[in-house]
Specification:
Strand order of the largest sheet: 6-7-8-9-10-11-12-13
Shape: globular
Structural class: alpha/beta
CATH topology: TIM Barrel
Number of helices: 16
Number of strands: 16
Largest sheet: 8 strands, parallel, barrel
Helix content: 25-40%
Radius of gyration: 20 Å
CATH architecture: Alpha-Beta Barrel
Length: 387
């Protein structure tokens, strides 16, 4: 729907996940026989959840444990894990500092150069313990370290930035990343993000991406939307990029999964992202709440350490249970942040969807009052959905 913003500007209405609801069909399915499996570059996972490449979320041990539980974790190759031989005293420092000193401390900590040998070491540590070695870097890291990443035997490489495009204009004489060449020549499947539009998603697929990350700025610890004013609410962004996936499959015969990245906190959020067209989701703060998470109850954005324009903050998410409880249950909390797989399977059953593909086809409506309707007592007493 187009809206006249002014005499010379027509705009489109976009919708966030919180503004949507899912509509039951004429059938239901027993949750026990729902199938939540999905594939990324031939790697099959039962849980369509990827833990974000953030220092507060994924270290070597978390990557291994996520793999064991049926999900996937991505290690940040430009974080403390590759800048420090022993990153844990640094993580302790980042958790203990007061909020006014946090950004300067981050800028200092992340000013230490990435040690290339630690990239190889961390990838090997994950693989030695039987984990899936999925790693992430910015376009700059992709240009600098792609050979090292490939030689170390990484299973997946995520190229991630606030916005990634196939057409980048840089200063004269400065080398820029050739995404198509990277996808063709690296020898490791490349997932690319982030984007929020049909056109860019289609270009990334045509460049050879095996998966596309969707979302700019909705993350719990991200401040990009406030700092830059950039982004599209997730329900619309995911639906648009999923349309690109469908058109690209018709064009090429190749299916490229869409991963909704950011703004996803509860099981209900995951269900709605998939219903909007996502194959999986990438989440940070829900995993940062695990007892095993390296952030020790804190979570911070990927662009927080920027030396010139920080676009993230540190939030206190607390520790609410083990990673297994958060992913597979049993839940001890009633707010949708435990047993995320169980929530997805129950929602699929309620909606009559037996597979992820069927879940992508369920009816979605615009429902701004979904989370507040009838919840007066919960809100007043800060219980359940009123927390």
């Amino acid at each position: 729907m187009n809206i006249q913003l002014g005499r010379t500007k027509v705009v489109r209405r976009a919708y966030g996940i919180d503004e949507t609801a899912l509509v039951p069909s004429g059938r239901t399915v027993d949750p026990e026989i729902t199938n939540t499996y999905w594939k990324l570059a031939g790697i099959e996972r039962e849980i369509p959840i990827i833990a974000s490449a953030m220092d507060s979320v994924v270290d070597v041990n978390m990557a291994v444990e996520l793999s064991r539980l049926g999900a996937l974790g991505v290690l940040n190759l430009e974080g403390v894990q590759t800048r420090y031989e022993d990153p844990y005293p640094v993580l302790e420092q980042m958790s203990a500092v007061n909020k006014d000193s946090f950004i300067p401390l981050m800028q200092e900590i992340y000013s230490k150069p990435v040690q290339e040998e630690l990239i190889s070491q961390r990838i090997q540590e994950i693989k030695d313990q039987g984990g899936i070695a999925a790693v992430s870097g910015t376009p700059v890291a992709a240009m600098r370290f792609s050979k090292t990443i490939a030689e170390a035997g990484a299973d997946l490489f995520f190229v991630q930035a606030t916005v990634v495009s196939t057409e980048h204009l840089g200063p004269e004489g400065q080398k820029t990343l050739d995404i198509e060449a990277l996808c063709q020549d690296m020898g490791v499947p490349v997932v690319i993000g982030n984007c929020v539009t049909y056109e860019v998603a289609l270009k990334l697929m045509r460049a050879g991406a095996v998966g596309v990350m969707v979302g700019i700025g909705p993350g719990a610890a991200c401040t990009s939307r406030g700092v830059l004013g950039v982004g599209i609410p997730q329900a619309t962004a995911v639906a648009d990029c999923a349309a690109a996936r469908e058109d690209y499959e018709k064009e090429s015969g190749r299916y490229v999964p869409i991963v909704a990245d950011g703004g996803i906190v509860t099981g209900g959020d995951i269900c709605k992202c998939i219903a909007c067209g996502a194959d999986a989701v990438m989440i940070g703060s829900p995993i940062a709440r695990a007892e095993e998470a390296p952030g020790q109850g804190f979570h911070w954005g990927m662009a927080t350490p920027s030396p010139v324009l920080p676009r993230g903050t540190r939030i206190n998410v607390g520790c609410t249970g083990s990673l297994e409880r958060i992913l597979r249950g049993p839940a001890l909390l009633d707010d949708g942040t435990h047993n995320l797989l169980g929530a997805l399977k129950t929602s699929m059953g309620t909606l009559g969807a037996q597979t992820i593909k069927e879940m992508q086809q369920v009816e979605v409506i615009i429902a701004p009052s979904l989370l507040t309707e009838g919840k007066v007592y919960q809100k007043a007493q800060q219980l359940g959905m009123g927390k």
